[in-house]
Design a protein that fits this description.
alpha/beta, Rossmann fold, 5-stranded parallel β-sheet, 5 helices, 5 strands, 45% helix, 19% strand
Length: 120
């Protein structure tokens, strides 16, 4: 079973995203802040990371940059999930190395299509 790390500080969004992922057959690990991310990655070796942009501590953009610059985590696909969904945000996420950018509220079909593209 593939493992997905969901980094989201909003309880409702965390529950919705996690439910969609579990229904699609994924094991979900969650983190609610930037401080938890590396520990969750070290302990769970996720196959994909869903990352909110606006988080307490470091932003999702900062976390993405750090993960993509680290040889141990650079190959893990990152999908941003955010209410910040302007073209500039999407371009910035892409420039930092994210593989996809989904706008909230999350569309279950779009989520499923994205997962199929990124997890082989």
């Amino acid at each position: 079973m593939n493992t997905v790390l969901v980094v989201e500080d909003g309880v409702t969004d965390m529950e919705i995203i996690s439910r969609y992922l579990q229904q699609a057959g994924y094991y979900v690990v969650s983190a609610t802040s930037s401080e938890e991310v590396q520990n969750k990655i070290d302990n769970n070796k996720p196959d994909l990371i869903f990352l909110d942009v606006i988080l307490p501590g470091k932003s999702g953009f900062e976390i993405c940059r750090e993960l993509k610059n680290n040889p141990d985590t650079s190959k893990i696909p990152i999908v941003f999930c955010s209410t910040k969904n302007s073209d500039v945000d999407k371009i910035w996420g892409n420039m930092l190395g994210a593989e996809a950018y989904l706008a909230k509220p999350i569309n279950p079909e779009e989520l499923a299509i994205t997962l199929k593209k990124l997890i082989k």
